[in-house]
């Protein structure tokens, strides 16, 4: 969730007074990076993933399940045991005192064989966490959103919300569920104080036959919308889990291209990975977390939301990107940006700085800084980037453009941020591998995914809808092999992934790319086959998304009363089933008959079978240049 600085966080009243100072020095820090690093070239592709886990406590006798508030304790235990593990990895704090984030100990390299290591690395991370768990009543799982987060007694040890407390002021979310690192609680307070009131999260409820109509839990509360599930704390959004994938590009130009092209794919991948249909104990009419987090960190004032004020942003700090970095033609969304900062960046005549990149940075810096530490104000702008990161790391978008840190061997990077956490390491590895293959195919084939950014933003809205992977259509470019005027159609995700008519389908683009790898090892080929097949079968509907599977589980539960309510015992049964699947139980609806672990001794398996498997889409002929 950003850089965890050790120190004393400043309250919003003091951060506000320092806002211009932080912006001024943050821009200077960025310009210093550009002067020294913008011409950096020939970096090898490196990549890595971040996975977030929820901690659970089961009471099998009472048939209850809770979020387990033991993050700090478990992290200490992991640090003590990490040197004894076969593959040391990195675990860090997340927003919730019931969450942990993990990353590989070192980045993966530009080698197809590295794709073999992803699932093994993920399994080791999960294993290492479970090794420091107390007993079989506790576990960690990669679940995007706990169904009863915010319900009475949802956490263990028990904690009660305090509407008149010091941090969240929530009716539902206890401050004890916020990680004790000072950054997190301070962010909650700063967002609440800047906007002048608590955050307002309203998610449309799923209307079943016995759901009250109108549904209105809080008729006297203006913030609570009718026929919506109301939530009022940052923890409802930042308490969700996801997967993020970071790619190192060979230079700044390639990073900008990847940023733009992958942004177009981000809503498609979000719909394919949809995994969060239940909020505060109710089935909702959405399948993804995105708008929940967006509202959970929305620090805009009422005046700004009405289009008034110096920078009346039309979206939250957590949103879809608002401009491309490599195409002015398709950046058709009005961009709010700090014109003075833009002028400063352009006046410096920095290498590789143009008006598109300058506007992107000036847009980020048109927000207020909401996190500052007393011991990190007066810094050396030649060596430090804290003030730049203060704004960069609190603008959460579907893609993030990441400059190299000073005095580091790390290059220009982009981060893909829309993948929802899946139940199994196989599924999580499949989505990571899909993104890696996509990034390589984009660069190698010079694919052109550009379409008006307003269409991408509309796709982000559609991707969150219930069963979007089958029921929604998405704007997508059909002539992805040329730089001519775009031919845009509304297509199903099955069309986009598996192809239709003259459109090859993204999976066929990736298969064409794989065909160019003549020395691909057998084991890697079989894994890639399974990964791509999972994505293809999700797109076609042959396999369910996690969200649809969870919804079906609830609606077919014997205790379900067709009223949208997900009770404590139903949640226990759902989480127990998730745990069994996580630990190896076969789930035909989610994974089908795919090879989770390939039969390495199958001598009859041909190398070309991973290309031909389920490939009914038109041929894709890569163009060397566009």
Observed structural traits:
37% helix; alpha+beta; single chain; 626 residues; 21 helices
Structure description:
By secondary structure, this protein is an alpha+beta fold. Helix 7 (252-272) packs parallel to helix 14 (453-463) and helix 13 (425-445) crosses helix 18. Helices cover 37% and strands 13% of the residues. The chain is built from 21 helices and 18 strands. It has helices at residues 12-17, 19-37, 71-81, 114-131, 182-195, 235-238, 252-272, 290-296, 302-305, 339-347, 355-364, 386-392, 425-445, 453-463, 468-471, 493-498, 506-515, 522-540, 546-555, 568-582, 609-612, and strands spanning 46-59, 64-68, 90-93, 99-103, 108-109, 138-141, 155-156, 201-204, 228-231, 242-248, 278-279, 282-283, 318-319, 396-397, 399-402, 413-420, 474-477, 488-491. The model is unreliable at 598-618 (pLDDT under 50). A hairpin with a 2-residue loop joins strand 11 (278-279) and strand 12 (282-283). The chain is globular and about 65 Å long.
What order do the helices and strands come in, and which of them pair?
Layout: H1 12-17, H2 19-37, E1 46-59, E2 64-68, H3 71-81, E3 90-93, E4 99-103, E5 108-109, H4 114-131, E6 138-141, E7 155-156, H5 182-195, E8 201-204, E9 228-231, H6 235-238, E10 242-248, H7 252-272, E11 278-279, E12 282-283, H8 290-296, H9 302-305, E13 318-319, H10 339-347, H11 355-364, H12 386-392, E14 396-397, E15 399-402, E16 413-420, H13 425-445, H14 453-463, H15 468-471, E17 474-477, E18 488-491, H16 493-498, H17 506-515, H18 522-540, H19 546-555, H20 568-582, H21 609-612
Parallel strand pairs: 2-7, 13-14
Antiparallel strand pairs: 1-2, 1-4, 1-5, 1-6, 1-10, 3-4, 8-9, 10-16, 11-12, 15-16, 17-18
